[in-house]
Amino acid sequence: MNPQIIHIKSVAAEGMGALSFFEAERDLPFAIKRIYYIYGAPKGVQRGGHAHKALRQLLWCPYGSILIRLDDGKEKTEVLLDDPTKGLIVEHFMWREMIWQQENSVLCVAADSYYDAADYIRDYDTFLQTVAGRNEL
Ligand code: TYD
Fold first, then answer.
1. Cα–Cα distance between 14 and 79 in angstroms, integer?
2. Class of domain 4-135
């Protein structure tokens, strides 16, 4: 499985840091309806542990280092988000786990839909059965 990495464009200002940006539907393959972020997590914390039926997302880490584990039901891969210019597209039916490699790392997410608890698959066996059923179609 090839993770979908995007390079987030950046403008560096000498001695003044850098500014990074992306535009929905231009730099991303979808329009954005929701942005959320996770912060204040200690090193070693693991979050996620679910997949989505429809949701598509861009994940990026503007500060710190977070390991993203992806599993499409057949293959697994890992992406280390340790650079503010690195973005990871996570499509639907992708089991994900996020592991904090550094205290206070920030995980930002741009999503193509509003929050919907019914869109989550939180049980791994149910996830495997669901993707196996989809692959039979
Ligand atoms: P969840 O997606 O389970 O995050 P994680 O997998 O990182 O633990 O969400 C955690 C809680 O936040 C859960 O109670 C649902 C709530 N939540 C919202 O209310 N709106 C949102 O947009 C998101 C992403 C979560």
1. 30
2. mainly beta
| pLDDT by 10s per residue, the chain, length 137 | 899 999 999 999 999 999 999 999 999 999 999 999 999 999 999 999 999 999 999 999 999 999 999 999 999 999 999 999 999 999 999 999 999 999 999 999 999 999 999 999 999 999 999 999 988 86
| Cross-strand partners of 81 | 66
73 vs 94: CA distance, rounded Å: 8
Ligand 1 mutation pick, 39, 46, 47, max ligand atoms within 8 A of CB: 47
- The Cα–Cα gap between 16 and 39 comes to 24
Q: Ligand 1, from 46, 69, 115, 123: best to mutate by most atoms within 8 Å of Cβ?
A: 115
Tokens matching residue 87: 């973005």
Determine whether the shortest distance from the Cβ of 48 to ligand 1 is under 6 A.
Answer: yes
